[in-house]
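Kindly review these tokens for lecture notes.

. . .
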Amino acid sequence: MPITIEEVLNRGFTAWTKNLKISVPFILSVIIIGIIWIAYMFLFIAAVVPSVAPLMADPVMDDIIEAITPHIVYLGGGFAILLIISSLIEVFFTAGAVGMAKDVALTGRTSYEEMINSGKKHFFNLFLFQILFYLIMLAGVVFVIPGILQVGDLTNIDAIMQNLLVLGAGFLLWIIYGIAVSIILAVSYYALVVNDLGPIQALKTGYRFFLNNKAAVVILWLLTIVVVVALNSLGTLFASFEYLSIIWSIISTVLSI
């Protein structure tokens, strides 16, 4: 007998409440990535300050830009490297979390050792899958190309305004395409870890799963979006109240995990 959406959500919530340690990989990922980016920001500021500080007594924007320019290459290179490192850290802990969830589904319990083992085993394949996923999403640029070709000179504001409808339609189609890809491949991340697959096999498995369970996948995806939008909306509502904003940020973090 097929499992209903209600049963899936109920089982997932029950498993999570009995194994709160499944949340740990996501918390560690956010903390570690945050520390790395903050450290990078401070290092960059420390490198730039000696060049910029003497100019601050009588600041001239052109002089400040000229002083910062030699550091731009290092900033860009460091940004690219940190982006890759952050992605690797994220996929490591994502793979670990999925491995822990698999453990819970099979045995009813899990361990931090499973997080480490699953992360080490699957993080590289998951990283490659993520690259493939972004390339597939990027392929949607073909919807925008006709509008760009029609505009010709993208620095010409008048030409852009004249072809705004075509450009807008292209971007709208790209967004719809991106949503469709996200839904169709939603399960691929989990399939890669659970079934010990390579990136290509995970794509195929996710696609086949979607074809066999279209309604369930779409409903679960929509529920996720609704929860995210609701959390963001409430966050915006409470933003003007200092104490409520702090309390809500803690609650929303727990709920998002």
Q: What stands out?
A: Residues 5-212 form one domain.
